[in-house]
């Protein structure tokens, strides 16, 4: 099969935390038979222009007006003749985070709460891609600091706990969670405090921009 007959693309699941709920960025599909169904941000890999997948990702994000992501990770590579009615299609799937303070103010941007999405809302196999990416994120949230990358650069421990709870879709025991985060030495105190419930709350930032791996899963999670 020649390159011209094979569609090779990127599918990017963008997550953000909005009003303490996990959201996914979607677009309206313009391809029959999925007109006006939701689809994920998509970018073709251009064999004549892209020297690496990373270059293709940056070009795709730039076209979407996202200048930077706080985190991005490859999920899987999928392919098949049934993926796209136009022919054999191969896609490299990534998920990434857009921190709320990096949000683009545009009427063309659609962020949908992940709890509000249904499988039949999506074009192609994008519902499955979102589901698998969400499950990957939930699984990694149990033993890494990944949810912290959904937050602005500065945050409180309450903000951090709410990010974990949004990703895991459950409540977490406050005392053990805070002890876990502080004992891991992944947070640096800033000179700022924030008033919360009439009490000052220390403001932190991440020490390292690489997710930390804990030596055991998050304790105290409860549905």
TrEMBL record:
Record's protein name: NrtR DNA-binding winged helix domain-containing protein
CDD domains membership: NUDIX_NadM_like (cd18873)
Checking Pfam families in the record gives: WHD_NrtR
Q: Domain NrtR DNA-binding winged helix: where? A: 148-206
Superkingdom of the source? Bacteria
């Amino acid at each position: 099969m020649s390159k011209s007959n094979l569609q090779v693309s990127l599918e990017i699941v963008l997550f953000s935390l909005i009003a303490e709920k996990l959201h996914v960025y979607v677009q309206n599909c313009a391809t029959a038979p999925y007109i006006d169904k939701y689809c994920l941000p998509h970018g073709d890999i251009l064999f004549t222009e892209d020297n690496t997948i990373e270059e293709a990702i940056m070009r795709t994000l730039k076209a979407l007006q996202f200048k930077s992501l706080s985190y991005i990770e490859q999920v899987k590579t999928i392919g098949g003749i049934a993926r796209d009615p136009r022919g054999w299609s191969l896609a490299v799937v990534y998920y990434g985070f857009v921190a709320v303070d990096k949000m683009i103010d545009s009427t063309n941007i659609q962020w949908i709460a992940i709890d509000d999405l249904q499988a039949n809302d999506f074009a192609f196999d994008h519902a499955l891609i979102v589901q698998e990416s969400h499950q990957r994120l939930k699984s990694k949230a149990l033993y890494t600091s990944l949810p912290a990358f959904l937050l602005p650069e500065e945050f409180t421990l309450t903000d951090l706990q709410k990010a974990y709870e949004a990703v895991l879709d459950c409540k977490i025991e406050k005392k053990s969670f805070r002890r876990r985060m502080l004992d891991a030495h992944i947070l640096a105190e800033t000179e700022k405090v924030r008033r919360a419930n009439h009490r000052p709350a220390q403001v932190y930032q991440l020490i390292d921009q690489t997710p930390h791996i804990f030596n055991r899963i998050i304790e105290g999670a409860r549905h």
